Amino acid sequence: MLKNEKGITLIALVVTIVVLLILAGVTISLLLDENGIIAKSKDARNANRAGAIKEEITLWKADKFAADNGAGSHESMDDFLARLKTRGLISDEDIATIKDTKKLQVGKETIVFPSDAKTLVQAFRDNEIKVGDYLNYNDYVDETKTCTTTTNENGWADQKYTATKNTYWQVLGLDSTGEKLMLISQSPIKKEMKTDDTAENWEKSPYLILKGAYGYVNGKAILNNISGIYNTELGEAKSITAEEINRLIGVTVDYTNKKVYANSAQNTNIDEAKVLGNQYTYTADDYTPESYINSKTHATAGKQTDPATAYLYQWSNLTIDDTLKTMLFSGTTNDTNNAKSYWLASSGVHAYSKVASFGPGAVGLRQYRLVERLVLLVR
Fold it and tell me: If you count DSSP H runs as helices and E runs as strands, how many of each does the chain have, helices first?
């Protein structure tokens, strides 16, 4: 029988073709499926692209923060996006998406782009908002937040405060660091009041009562804890202090030379108390504020108080910007029941050779029951 050794059978040809098709299918699968070489290569490119974009955003935000705080200028968002396009990191379509949504999907990662809007601090520096302007902070206030100062803290009774959106907020100026804008409540913050016939008069009033040694030792913490119900993601709330008021209206307390003066007239002592630096020597029958509220043990006879830090001046005798004067002092001296006199988160010692007194500071007619003013620190 004769055989054609150089030929190929039909079966062998079919097997060869099937094998080639399988190999081609495997190759295509390796290239095209979701775990394939092409997909992995695309994922790697997207990861590198996303990393580069995020790095640029970080640098842009750092430059903007520096510029907002007075260190040069920074690139606008439009210029920033144009630069990313020049680098091949984004397209015109991407730019439209970013401007519309502030986001960009790069592969499996969502990148959030920052806003180019000015901070409130920068707007104030650029004179776009001014002292006395009203700003809407109420949208951020959580009216479920409450704070109760207890009898053991304030020396009088439990007193409850609840955050409200009914407060108007005005621009007071920059804080002492120059990095945050201060907003002040137009009206004092008032506690919850009772209206039933069995309530005592103090329960029907808006006043925060701080009594005796408790008011001196715990006053600052109480005031700031109450203020904290107005903390939001936009800003931090705290009680206003004597130091902040002095700085804003241009008054200096010189403890070394024991005088208080307006910065415009440094040779005139406006302090009416004139006790700065005085000290009182305790007798065996006395208490320190701390010893009285902690264990009611007597002070050590012969021990002296800290040098007196209390002072008193009449704001009406000073030259103060009219807007600031209205915001800080209007109604604090002549309202019925001193309704607008308010506590300060600053304490002081008032001392003579024969007596010493201690207490939190206040604006207005000095009593043991006053209301509270808040300041917000926002960027």
Answer: 10, 15
